[in-house]
Q: What sequence folds into this?
């Protein structure tokens, strides 16, 4: 897939997962969804999980979620959702799932608490389906099995996706069409417009339409000349329907501009703190900080820059790329 460049923990896909986690579970893992007591709500543990990920030091991460839910049986369960949207095969994926699983278990091992690891794979290797991590020696065995969802499998279920009102059905439709229209920009334009119209036809809330639009726009990039045509078509459609949700294309642009300004300021603050404390900051550290676009990660790094004992220690906690 050819998404726009995003920060490691910063993409419309993750934003959608943050807001619509129950819908995500209902679409991809319906059996688990049925056992969860959604009336009790759920608790995201992203800050804790980012620390676990940093400690694991297993290289580049994509979109990961750690969420606490309660079962209808009143048993508390911590769920790890690891979602890949970059379409990349990784030989050590199963091992990473095991390491994350164990580290979460070790952090939260309380009575009646379980850890469940789930994965959604957006790569393009149809035969790559990692479902377990295991090894054995001298009678000692270890095995972790985890459920996976392969996005490519939905290609043969397009009609079901078109009938499914779950917002993640539209997400998968956009994913499949982004892959199919990679070298056909005109077809991509028409398909993208069709999917955006579908957001209105399904009666989603304004907030959901905007959230899903961001995700579709992120996955289905158009050339500049077609992008302007797309914006005009969306504007005309909204005028016709009298539903000016994403003529917020302009508003979204303003929001992105504001976000870019905040992120830039946060990066500058980190470098300034480091220069104040250690005088000369190596170029590799400046470059590493400038590659981070997630505002929460930058805020945490600002605090770290104030307290860290050396530049070498600061390098150790930077995301590996």
A:
């Amino acid at each position: 897939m050819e998404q726009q460049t995003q920060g490691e923990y910063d993409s419309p896909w993750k934003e959608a997962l943050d807001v619509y986690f129950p819908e995500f579970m209902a679409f991809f893992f319906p059996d688990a969804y049925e056992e969860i007591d959604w009336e009790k709500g759920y608790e995201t543990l992203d800050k804790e999980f980012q620390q676990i990920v940093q400690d694991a030091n297993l290289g580049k991460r994509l979109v990961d979620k750690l969420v606490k839910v309660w079962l209808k049986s009143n048993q508390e369960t911590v769920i790890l959702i690891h979602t890949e949207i970059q379409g990349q095969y990784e030989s050590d994926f199963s091992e990473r799932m095991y390491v994350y699983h164990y580290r979460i278990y070790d952090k939260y091992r309380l009575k009646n608490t379980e850890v469940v690891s789930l994965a959604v794979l957006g790569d393009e290797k149809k035969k790559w389906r990692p479902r377990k991590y295991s090894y054995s020696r001298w009678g000692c065995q270890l095995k972790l099995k985890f459920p996976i969802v392969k996005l490519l499998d939905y290609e043969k279920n397009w009609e079901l996706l078109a009938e499914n009102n779950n917002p993640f059905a539209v997400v998968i439709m956009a994913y499949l069409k982004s892959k199919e229209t990679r070298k056909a920009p005109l077809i991509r334009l028409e398909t993208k417009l069709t999917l955006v119209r579908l957001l209105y036809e399904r009666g989603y809330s304004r907030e959901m339409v905007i959230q899903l639009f961001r995700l579709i726009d992120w996955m289905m990039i158009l050339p500049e000349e077609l992008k302007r045509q797309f914006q005009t078509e969306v504007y005309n459609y909204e005028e016709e329907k009298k539903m000016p949700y994403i003529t917020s294309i302009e508003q979204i642009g303003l929001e992105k501009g504001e976000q870019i300004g905040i992120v830039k300021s946060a990066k500058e603050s980190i470098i300034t703190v480091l220069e104040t404390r250690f005088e000369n900051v190596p170029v590799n550290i400046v470059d590493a900080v400038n590659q981070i676009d997630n505002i929460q990660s930058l805020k945490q790094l600002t605090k770290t820059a104030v307290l860290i004992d050396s530049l070498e220690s600061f390098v150790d906690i930077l995301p590996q790329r």
